[in-house]
Design brief:
With about 850 residues, the protein is an alpha/beta fold. About 60% of the residues lie in helices and about 10% in strands. It has 39 helices and 16 strands. It has a six-stranded mixed sheet with strand order 7-6-8-12-15-16, with helices on both faces. α31 links the parallel β4 and β5. It is globular and about 100 Å long.
Amino acid sequence: MARPAEAFGAAETLLAQSPDPRTASIAHQAKGIVLRDSGRAAEAIAELRRAVRLAGRSGDSERTADVEATLGLTLGLAGRAAEGLTALDHAVALSNGIHSGRVLMRRGYLLRVLGRYDEALADLRRAVKVLRTGGDRLWEARSRTHRFLVYAALGQATRADRDLVIAEQLLTAEGQDLESAMAVHNRADLAYQRGDLPEALGFLDEAGARYAALQTSWPSLAIDRSAVLLAAGLAGEALASAEEALANETGNGTATADLLFAAAQAAQAAGQAALAGERAAAAAELFRRQGRKSWQARASFVVLQSRYDAGQRGARLSTQAGRVADRLDELHSAEAASAHLFAGRLAAEVGRRDDADRHLATAARFRRRGPAYGHAAGWLAEALRAEGRGATAATLIACRRGLQAAGDHQRSLAAPELRAHAAAYGTELAALAQRHAVRRGDARMLLRWSELWRAGALAVPPVHGPDDRELAGELAALRNITARLNESAPGPATDRLLTDRTRLESAIRSRTRRLAARPTSTPTTSGDLEELLGGLGEHRLVELTEVDGELFAISVVGRRVRMHRVGPVAAAVREIELARFMLRRLARGRPPARALEALETAGKRLQQVLLGPAAADLHRGNPSGPVVVVPTARLQSAPWAMLPALGAVPLTVAPSAALWLKAGRTKAPSRRRVALVVGPGLDGSGSELELINKGYPDAITLLDQSATAEAALAALDGAWTAHIAAHGIFRTDNPLFSNFTLHDGPLTIYDLGRLRRAPQRLVLSSCESGVAAAVGADELLGVVSALVPLGTASLLASVVPVNDAATAGLMVDFHEHLRGGASFGTALRAVRASIADDPVMLATALSFVALGC
């Protein structure tokens, strides 16, 4: 167990010497254990049957009991539960003293896997007592490890933690490398049960590294990683982890069944109903054959969810869901709350009000129980239950408390990626309240609830990482590899570099996800409508929100708030893509005939699907005054200045009105330091920098070989105004690896996250620097997600690839207006007005958006 590969080789060497039956029995048993733990069940069983026969020939009853217990456990883990338990029962009858404790531990192990927790606990308690009394510290540690898992499954965290601490101490003292790694693995489970997902991911990474060093694989590592990733909202990655492990698993043992179930859960969360149903049905059948009734019920729940997601409805599905929920509740399953929430919804759909209320009431019990990431689901059940009774006030109270719980979970995560994906139930809670607002035609209520949950990840205080030397080293290595890839021709060397880049990116993601958030009680957004209305001043606000696939525009002019139904969100997304395509085409520098007219026509279409009737509201009050647009995450990359109602006014785009208000209150640093950074290969960059630099005589200027990533970060940190002119790449596969090309390679968003304080004002003269991926609960992943929490109040960025030469001239004019005291929105409007007759220049100006304040 300490060094499996070494043990296997030693056993084969011993067997080659034709040892006596008792010694040969031990060697075959050792080989069987290593084969079993490597997933080679059939070979393991064959070795262990030889060991049983040889033990019988030796006449040593204790030896026979010991190896028969190993065979029984192996049969059970291979899915032959009845046969395995028969062998284990026989072994218990044969054993006595310390040996009985070892056999009881194995039987308790199998009973735990089968979900027979009460029987498992009885065996493991006896085993711990016998082994502790007999002074067998190693087997006592093993028994405590399995008892820990039973306690954890039953939700008895204090007892579980005590067993795990003692087991880890004993295993370390005994020099058991593999089982020490398993103890670290078990710590991940405990962290997961507490709701500390970053710590759980850290322990899983550490356990994985230890397993790899011992040249052994552990299927449960992929299962547990999948569960933690699911809790963090990363369903796609959870599915990939489970599917990869499943592809490497052979046979129909318990590990295969567990991996099928993990893949089914992840596929369901990822919206792949067909795959979820296929995997869950296969898992349920294996669980049935293995006699694992509680696991069979869990898999049946996923089967029902997949049928619902595939479009199945009706009273029969509702009845089945209710039965499964009740069964999971009886079994104290972790899925009981979700199952009752599901059953309650289905019962409400078919008009079974009493059943719906019962199931939702059961699910609502978990609003204050269990891990923090599950509390929002309990509040959602409470809100749905209140809605079923027609109790609007109670519904909204539950929604507000649920959003607070979801926000608490979000703030517990440090990595921007985890925060953005977290707390999916928060979206449902906000949507429930927004539907009430739409039905009532209450614009103020709709605005308040849209703000309560919008862009929560960007409001979380940053976790500083500038002193993480290992992360800095990995990012530097990534720059080096990327620079070499850009210079290499296709071939084996390039393939190796691509492999190294993938490995490094994976390590960087893992490292940042393990960061623990700083404790904070700061709410995501206050939802104080009066504070927002009072803070707008001369600005007019248009906030967009999605309700059941429909786009609504909320306009605020003066203190008058109006709500307008605009149309399908899908139509708006499609029109944005067409407009961005037009701008990309013009950026090439060869505009077609009547290009200006085409831009105008496209802008009118865009306005119709994005603002609809709300555009008319902007002509009221001060028609030339500044406008703040707050789009949904999916609409964030629109070229907003193309809209006729917005093209001639100072325009700012913000992830939420609360964040815009906060940005406007940011005080300028006492030292107004300016940083100018120019990457290689840009047309007109030299003259651009020279002209901009004239206006900032004391600026820190980085050009050519001086424009390295570390030098740029040092210059940007805490700057008042910064300008980066560089080729930009937006990574749709992983937005946080989007980057700007500098002399020594790419400066990624992960690099920007290492700043202690981002520049207060930042100009990004770069392609697609303003594009962000829409994820999770109307959240963004991109430059905005890195810089806004770190203090950037105003940001100029593009939403499409731009013309380098045209951009250079535009940036010179933009900075001239900034130095005159203009805001980003006012400066950008002035630039657009001065080039209205040049299609390429105008398209370039329209490609840039002023973000923040």
